Amino acid sequence: MTATPRLALLPSVFSLLLIHSTIVTADTAQGLAAPAGTTFPEALPEVEASYRVVVNGIPLGLNAMIRLTQEPDNYQLHFKVENRLFRHEEVAQFDWDNCVAKPHHYRHESVGFGINRGGEIVFDWKTRTAKGSKAVYPLVADALDALSVAMVARCNMAKADSAFSYHVAEPDGLDEYQYRSLESETIKTPAGEWMATGLERDYEERGRKSRFWAARELDYFMIRMDHQENPFVRGRIELTDFRYLNEEDTPNPALQAGSTVSSR
Questions:
Q1: How far apart (Å, rounded) are the C-alpha atoms in residues 93 and 254?
Q2: What are the pLDDT tens digits along the chain (264 aa)?
Q3: Were both Cys, which of 4, 59, 144, 179 would link to 149 (CB 3.0–4.6 Å)?
């Protein structure tokens, strides 16, 4: 495949693969509480993960990044995919306490290839109102945003839940994401080989599906996502690098299962 056809795929790939892309990406104060015995950390370690984008088996030379940081008032989850022709970005801000999270703000923006769109939501918990850029509507108690829901899904995966769903606040209204677990398996990525837990997201549209894999030794952080919009276009993002931003958060390699990579 020449460079020109590859670039021609990018607009459709981004619209399919990256909107609500990550993953299964926050819960509210009345949301999920971690049960006794769970091994998921009470506080979220600050991390940065890098990925490559592959479409129909062809790497596009495109970089994706997920960065989780703890700011003075809350956590911030930042997802970005870009090259010199296109940029897609999502940012979520939320509180977190032992698998219980409360979103405050979410925004997304896509620019390039004739695409210029975006949206945001302010979560007003005092009035239980979602103030979206396209609609204002009541918040349900367990409302999430489309990005930070991935952090709560990590808790569900750590508990080995077989199926779960989330109410997700979008800029234009409330949606529901439904997931079911897949068999654990070994997943190979450019960053190494991992024992991974899988999820599949269900869609109403026939033939459309997304699958996600998260590594146990990375506290169930995503290492790969596959998306099929139709029989002709299939895309995936796969981990190329992962690092903890604070050295004290880095797990003891002797306690980890599977292969390790030097960036960790």
A1: 33
A2: 444 444 444 444 444 444 344 333 322 223 334 344 446 788 899 999 999 988 888 887 788 999 999 999 899 999 998 888 888 999 999 999 888 789 999 999 989 878 899 999 999 999 999 999 999 999 999 999 988 888 999 999 998 999 989 999 999 999 998 899 999 999 999 999 999 999 998 777 777 788 999 999 999 999 999 988 777 778 889 999 999 998 777 764 433 333 443 333
A3: 144
- DSSP-derived secondary structure for 161-202: -SEEEEEEEETTEEEEEEEEEEEEEEEEETTEEEEEEEEEEE
DSSP for residue 27: -
Q: Specify whether the CB–CB gap between 194 and 258 falls below 8 A.
A: yes
Element (H or E) spanning 63, and its range? strand 58-70
Among candidate residues 151, 178, 176, 154, the one with its CA nearest the CA of residue 164: 178
Q: How far apart are CA 150 and CA 249, in angstroms?
A: 19
Give the tokens for residue 95: 């509180």
The pTM of this model reads 0.80
Residue pair 209/203 in contact (Cβ under 8 Å)? The answer is yes
